[in-house]
Design goal:
Layout lengths: L1 E6 L2 E2 L3 E9 L6 E7 L1 E2 L2 E2 L11 E8 L2 E15 L2 E7 L12 E7 H12 L3 E4 L7 E7 L4 H12 L2 E5 L2 E5 L7 E6 L4 E9 L6 E8 L5 E7 L4 E8 L4 H15 L3 E9 L8 E6 L8 E13 L2 E11 L2
Parallel strand pairs: 11-14, 15-21, 17-19
Antiparallel strand pairs: 1-2, 1-7, 3-4, 3-22, 4-9, 5-6, 7-8, 8-9, 10-12, 13-14, 16-20, 17-18, 20-23, 21-22, 22-23
Amino acid sequence: MSYDIQVGNYKINHLLSCEVRKSSNKLSDTATIKLNGMAYNSALEIESKIKRGDEVDIKLGYDETLFDEFKGFISSITTDNTIIIEVEDGMFLTRKEVKNKQYKNVKAIEVLEDVMSQLGGFTIVKGDGVSDLRYDKFTVSNATAYDVIKKIKEETGLHIFVKGTVLHIHLKYTYKEGDANYDFSKNVEKASLKYVKIEDKKVQIEVIGINRKNEKTKVLVGEKGGDKVTVHRYNVTDPKALKIIGNEEIKKHRYTGYEGNITTWLFPFCTYGYSCNIIDTDYPNREAIYYCEAVTSSFSENGGVRKITLGIKLA
């Protein structure tokens, strides 16, 4: 077990634990660093050494092989017998007020570009299809850039996140980061999975069409009693067209395969956007590739593990 954690101008010693949380469903990735409040029979005094906004760089791994787990900024510090440092990724830098403004007949990407230009220092990477999302009217009033980004993410279902000073904007499940292989007989510590057959899996899709006047048309497709997914489509309000969109969306969520999570070690590295190849020698017919939707990486004297939440089945 090995780690290299830099907080402000200081390297961390006396680490009790570190947890890194990443999810494609959340706007920010976060981390928690816990330190022993005492060292050499004396209380650690850190208030004069680190503060909110200081940069944090977390590397975790084994021996000399360390993975770049997280880069971000201190969001809060609490001290007692244990020192707890909460950290947020680059989205922390968007928590600044932007100009009040009303946009008309505007693409969602154009609002984001304008807001991020007011902050300065950011670049934007956008995936295919994101420019098709349009608002008839979008109002910014007494809001931070973070508030604007959060609203657009919630209303459009876009996968929006920050890596360093790059704002990524993608359609959900289209961002590809890398690949990882997981074999139940080799590198899976435990699993909380349910193998569901397509005929037994209930999914209901709510498709909301929004026209240029911001009027909404809603269509429900699928079955009640299971997972519910909401999809937004701009400038599409024909119920027949929305129903087709809903039926196509169901195909992503209604499949024969696993749902749930697996717990692995720190190697191989994995984060959301990875394609996870699940290998099961006992049930080879169940082998498949899934989208990694979320990862929680935990590191302490008890070991290092990743809890990986599987998303849609890719192949």
